[in-house]
């Protein structure tokens, strides 16, 4: 919804070091308010000294629709992050990983490889390799790709044993 209000301003004096101007205008105020997902709301206001043309109004309305879509996307993204963190914390508490192993798992999921993690943590590559092997063993993953994939889907706790 795009609203339109007109306000009369009193004569104002704006002073600057360069010169002094006197402004006396009718200001037009254009506003929009929208309900977003998850109970959020978005709004905007735009003041214009000159009346806006129909084309300008249409552009504002289209821009407002774009802003609403972006805002919904942003709200959804942060809502997803909150759910993800809650799920991660729940699974994290149930796991048998040490704090260091959990930190390394987070770095793997963020896209770093073993040598990069070793450099970041100021330890040897062999130490990280050993810790990754321990993570794989505890989570019953066969390789890092499976570990990262299962972690990303929230199933990173131990895989059920298959009977042969």
From TrEMBL:
Pfam families: GerE. Keywords: DNA-binding. One of its GO terms (biological process) is regulation of DNA-templated transcription. Residues 94-151 form the HTH luxR-type domain. GO terms for molecular function: DNA binding. InterPro entries: Sig_transdc_resp-reg_C-effctor, Tscrpt_reg_LuxR_C, WH-like_DNA-bd_sf. It comes from the Bacteria. SMART domains: HTH_LUXR. This is DNA-binding HTH domain-containing protein. It comes from Vibrio ishigakensis. The lineage of its organism: Bacteria, Pseudomonadati, Pseudomonadota, Gammaproteobacteria, Vibrionales.
